[in-house]
Structures are given as structure tokens and as C-alpha cells.
Design a protein that fits this description.
The chain is of the alpha/beta class and 290 residues long. The chain has one domain: Vaccinia Virus protein VP39 (Rossmann fold, 3-Layer(aba) Sandwich). The longest helix has 18 residues. The radius of gyration is 19 Å and the shape is globular. 45% of the residues are buried.
């Protein structure tokens, strides 16, 4: 794990107004925290990547004045709760794969972010992982338009944005049984969520759900659904997000067999009647955003 931010990263020059002055440069204090926090994760950001996150923040907060994209409106907290929280997946995934982080970032991986919202974690990961072949599924049109706008601003023209519901898209090509990596952050409780995610993963693929302090209870409640839908609970990985005190856990599920036809179910059944929750109506209750 790297310590201080690299000299190269410290020479980033910022041009937006309102930044504190240092000799010879204008420095965005929130972005300094992002660069430093990413370095603590073992992920030294290049100046271009840091600039991309700065632009992402500007667009997110500007659009948020018109549309409800995020409850996090302080720029410093955007860096911590959105970007660093998203990026904390990478060292954990590299360790799980038994490879250096640089090797992971060199892989061509087909991924989908389900319920992508304002583009997190997907777009944040794509900024630092150039070989990530990313699709983002989102049911709300204004959020899809925002992601398209940000991707254009950041030069991420290869990202595919899909306006639709995962429970419908996962029933057919080109999305069913397609992805190497299926991601979700702040979407639903795990017994519900796995019915959206597992049908999208190819056999041999992997699901990662970002969760909070209730991760262990949710994983236990989702045990039946995971097995029935072709998954295997691989690991619950506690992660430390620099600058964040709350508990963060990555729930990792491997796709070991094909999902039965007809799943995910329609008519909102994954939320109303989560698999395996018949005897315990509370097991599918949403525990809130991470």
C-alpha cells in the first residue's frame, strides 16, 4: 500500500474559483483528499484522472440543483462517499484474484453497474480502469441522461448506457448471462438484489454488492436465493474507505451454474416476495443505502 501522494499528483493545477492558494498553484482541498485517499488504497491517480473526478463533481452538483441525483452535496463528501467508496472495490478485488492491482487494471473485463444512479460505482471505476468494458443499467431517464452527459464530458465514449429495468433486461440477450462482473451499490436488500444480478452474470462470472453494517444479516437471509439462482457466496470483505467511519462490506458471489429460466420474476416480485423469505417477511426489507 502506498503512503504519501506522488510528487506528480501533487503538481496538479486547478483552475476553478474558490480554491485555496499555494505557491504557484491553485489547489482544490477536496481533490487533494481524493488523491491522498486513493493513494492509501494503493491507487495513485494520474493528473488526468484527478481532473476527471473534479469535472465529475462539478457536473454532479450542477445537475443536482435541478434533479435529485444525490443526497451528498458537499464536495469533500462526494470525494469520500462516492468516489473513494466506489474505488475501494479495486484493491479488494485484486487481493481476491491474487494479482497486483496493476494487473487487475490491465484486464479486459465486461462489467455492468445495475441501478447505476448518477454513475456510481461504474463511472468512477471506469475513470481509473481504462480496459473496463462498462454497461450501466438505470430505470430513471434523467439519471441516464446525466450519465451520458458526464461520460461525454470525461471522454468515456465506450460506456454503454441502458435505460430500463434489470428484472426485464436480465431475461434476454444481450444482457442475460453475459457479464464477467456485475456490480450494485445502494439498490436493494440482498435477498431482492441477487435476483436482479445473478441472471446477468455469465457462468464463471462474479457479483459484487456494496453493503453496510447489515451485510452479514442480508447474506444469511439471501442464502437460499443465491443457491437457487446459480450463485455461491464466496466472501464478505470488510473494507476501509479513507475518511469514512462507517462500516463497508463487499458481498462477493460467484456464478457457478445457470440461472433457471423465468428469473428474475416480473411484477415487482423480487421486492415484494424475495426468494427464501416466505417464512421471514422481514428478510427482504431494504436496509437503506450504503
Amino acid at each position: 500500500m502506498l503512503g504519501p501522494v506522488s510528487d506528480r499528483a501533487e503538481r496538479i493545477i486547478w483552475h476553478r474559483p474558490g480554491f485555496s492558494k499555494k505557491p504557484g498553484l491553485l489547489y482544490n482541498a477536496a481533490m487533494q483528499r481524493l488523491v491522498s485517499g486513493a493513494a492509501q488504497l494503493g491507487l495513485p491517480l494520474t493528473p488526468a484522472q484527478a481532473t476527471a473526478f473534479d469535472a465529475f463533481t462539478s457536473e454532479l452538483l450542477a445537475w443536482n440543483e435541478r434533479f435529485n441525483l444525490t443526497a451528498v452535496t458537499d464536495p469533500e463528501q462526494v470525494e469520500i462517499r462516492h468516489y473513494l467508496d466506489s474505488l475501494a472495490l479495486l484493491p479488494a478485488l485484486a487481493a481476491l484474484e491474487g494479482v497486483p492491482l496493476t494487473a487487475l487494471l490491465g484486464r479486459n473485463v465486461r462489467a455492468v453497474d445495475v441501478g447505476a444512479g448518477a454513475g456510481l460505482p461504474g463511472l468512477a471505476l471506469r475513470v481509473v480502469w481504462s480496459k473496463l468494458r462498462l454497461s450501466a443499467i438505470e430505470a430513471t431517464g434523467k439519471k441516464v441522461r446525466f450519465m451520458e452527459h458526464v461520460a461525454e464530458k470525461l471522454g468515456l465514449g465506450d460506456v454503454q448506457f441502458v435505460h430500463g429495468r434489470a428484472e426485464e433486461l436480465a431475461l434476454r440477450e444481450p444482457h442475460r448471462a453475459t457479464y464477467d462482473l456485475v456490480l450494485a451499490r445502494a439498490v436493494a436488500s440482498l435477498p431482492t438484489l441477487v435476483e436482479y444480478l445473478l441472471p446477468l452474470a455469465r457462468r464463471g462470472g462474479r457479483i459484487v454488492a456494496y453493503k453496510g453494517s447489515a451485510a452479514h444479516e442480508e447474506a444469511l437471509a439471501a442464502e437460499y436465493a443465491i443457491r437457487f439462482l446459480g450463485g455461491q457466496l464466496t466472501r464478505l470483505i470488510p473494507i476501509e474507505v479513507p475518511g469514512l467511519a462507517e462500516t463497508r462490506v463487499l458481498v462477493v458471489i460467484d456464478k457457478v451454474s445457470q440461472t433457471p429460466e423465468g428469473y428474475p420474476r416480473g411484477r415487482g416480485l423480487p421486492r415484494k416476495q424475495p426468494l427464501g423469505c416466505k417464512e421471514n417477511p422481514e428478510c427482504g426489507e431494504d436496509t437503506g443505502e450504503v
